[in-house]
Design brief:
Length: 606
């Protein structure tokens, strides 16, 4: 028989001791949880901005021959809506969950490189502000969020809008690459003892796959954007057909990035749903290894389907056949996940909390988006549907019905852990049903106007073409989505003011983040847990993990805050913006960036 001494709850020597408070604490924070909150709040603001842009477009298209906005303003709204939703809203909303949750779910105290993590956020913020500044500095880009040649040439886009877009996307790419490398190293090297790869939560797996896609995909778009800037600023001819170049090269480079980007947007939502469904079904995820392998396969196959965006450019029957087959093949692992999610609920004690409703909504809406996407895998069908509103319907069922439904499921699921307070379930369910109804009223009619021949990317349309009633319906649906968002915002504000205290584990979850207090302490775990199973808190030693996770056994070193990641990010943004504004902005930016990096490099760790 052995005896053990209870651990002493000694004060943790964290960076919080004597640390600054107020605004300065947020400017200097390197705490992964605070950075996750910064990502989430900033991305949600840009989500609202993207929604405003969409609303203005839908008002313009509510009736034929409308003059609510001018054609040029419509093109700017169209370009910035797509860019904002993809790069400034959905991706960083996913990054918010990555930052806040991954260290908690793997039993770590922080990410591998906390200052690099802060640098990633500030680069994202400055890049987002830089792109949106184009609205006030000569006009936003008006070529479409896909930037097809030759619309982006100086001949057809003589202002600086395209330059803002191209430089801004490169700035955002640096933020994404910094985050991607950080999360890969964190997940590979900092898991709790006993947490083998096949004991990681599915959300952590999807974070890992997404991070690999980011670091492999963003260099491709970077090359394309560098070529574009060379053409515009130095007179090269990478995309100039008059000089013997082929504008289709841009499409290959853009979609070679763009289709893995689709999975960068959807895989995190799949990971979120894979955590929510087991908790509210009160049973483990059905077929965990198959769900993991299918996610990896989706990431791998995502590189082999890009030219299904290009069936109309004349690639020839061999290329069309290959990309048609590969597009059909990638539907298999996606279908596998759907069947596993349904099997998880089957026979479980399903509890329809708001998070669960959004998870089920994700499955149903993503199925609809996947079915219309499968139609695009057939070149003859795609030739009829491409560049019509049928495609607009498809992408919104995937990215709004899929990604955003999954993100809202995660917000309702982990909000108690992030804030220590519960969201109101009645307001949450009103938010869900209004979102579901508003989304379908908005986007489902677009299938029909697309099949009737309405082109996408058009400023207006003639009367008596059969588009009028369904366009008006889509515009009405947008206001339903707006009402739903108002319910969500009211819910968050109500919760922060007077929400019910959450406790450590309000849902009875199975993963490690539920073993510690809500919100978590700066050091996350007083004692790093040892994991023996896939669902550690549902295992026989789950109570012991929960009991010891908050007990501090001795001093804990945490990195102090630093202003230098912000300074380096600001300098780098100024340096790159010199390509638009001139050397008098770029040279000071270089000095500021080097100062920030030098000071960061020699900053003491404690």
């Amino acid at each position: 028989m052995t005896t053990t001494t209870a651990p002493v709850a000694a004060p943790a020597a964290t960076h919080e001791a004597g640390s600054p408070s107020g605004l300065w604490s947020w400017l200097t924070t390197v705490d992964h949880k605070r950075i996750g909150v910064l990502y989430g709040v900033t991305a949600f603001i840009f989500f609202l901005i993207g929604g405003i842009e969409a609303t203005l477009m839908r008002i313009q298209l509510a009736k034929p021959e409308n003059t609510f906005v001018s054609p040029d303003v419509f093109n700017q709204l169209f370009t910035m809506h797509g860019t904002t939703m993809i790069f400034l809203a959905i991706m960083p909303l996913s990054a918010s969950f990555f930052n806040f949750l991954v260290p908690l779910m793997i039993g770590a105290r922080d990410v591998a490189f906390p200052r690099l993590n802060a640098f990633s956020y500030w680069v994202y913020l400055f890049g987002a502000l830089f792109i949106n500044a184009s609205f006030f500095l000569g006009g936003a880009p008006n070529t479409g969020w896909f930037g097809y040649s030759n619309l982006t040439s100086s001949q057809f886009s003589p202002g600086h809008g395209v330059d803002f877009w191209a430089v801004g996307l490169q700035i955002l790419g640096i933020a994404s690459l910094a985050a991607g490398f950080n999360f890969i190293i964190t997940i590979v090297n900092m898991r709790a003892p006993g947490m083998k790869l096949m004991r990681m939560p599915v959300f952590v797996w999807m974070t890992l796959v997404t991070s690999f896609l980011i670091i492999l995909a963003f260099p491709v778009i970077t090359v394309a954007l560098v070529f574009l800037l060379f053409d515009r600023l130095t007179g090269t001819n990478f995309f100039q057909p008059a000089m013997g170049a082929d504008p289709v090269l841009w499409q290959h480079l853009f979609w070679l990035f763009g289709h893995p980007e689709v999975y960068i947007l959807i895989l995190p939502a799949m990971g979120i749903v894979s955590e929510v469904l087991p908790t509210f079904s009160r049973k483990p995820l059905f077929g965990y290894p198959v769900v993991v392998y299918s996610g990896i396969f989706i990431g791998f196959m995502g590189w082999g389907v890009w030219s299904h965006h290009m069936f109309a450019v004349g690639l020839g029957p061999i290329a069309d056949s290959f990309f048609a087959l590969s597009t059909m093949l990638i539907a298999i692992p996606t279908g596998v996940k759907i069947f596993n999610w349904i099997a998880t609920m089957w026979g479980g004690r399903v509890e329809l909390k708001t998070a669960m409703l959004f998870a089920v909504g994700f499955i149903s809406m993503f199925i609809m988006g996947g079915l219309s996407g499968f139609m695009h895998a057939s070149p003859p069908a795609d030739l009829q549907q491409t560049d019509t509103y049928f495609v607009v319907a498809h992408i919104h069922y995937v990215l709004f019905g899929g990604s955003m439904m999954g993100i809202f499921a995660g917000l309702y699921y982990w909000f108690p852990k992030m804030t220590g307070r519960m969201l109101d379930e009645r307001l949450g369910k009103a938010h869900f049903w209004l979102t579901l109804i508003g989304m379908n009223v908005t986007f489902f009619p677009m299938h029909f106007v697309g099949l009737l021949g309405m082109p996408r990317r058009v400023y207006t349309y003639a009367p008596n073409m059969g588009f009028d009633a369904m366009n008006m319906m889509s515009t009405i649906g947008v206001f339903g989505i707006i009402l739903a968002l108002l319910f969500f915002i009211a819910n968050v504000l109500k919760s922060r003011a007077s929400g019910k205290p959450a406790g450590n584990d309000p849902w009875g979850g199975s993963t490690l983040e539920w073993a510690i207090s809500s919100p978590p302490p700066p050091h996350n775990f007083g004692t790093i847990p040892t994991v023996h199973s896939l669902d550690p808190l549902w295992a026989k030693d789950g109570a012991e993990i929960t009991r010891t996770a908050g007990q501090v056994r001795g001093p804990i070193h945490m990195p102090p805050g630093s202003i230098w990641p912000l300074v380096a990010a600001l300098g780098m943004t100024m340096l790159m913006s010199g390509m638009v504004f001139g050397w008098y902005v770029g040279i000071p930016g270089l000095v500021i960036m080097l100062t920030g990096l030098y000071s960061w490099s020699f900053e003491p760790c404690d």
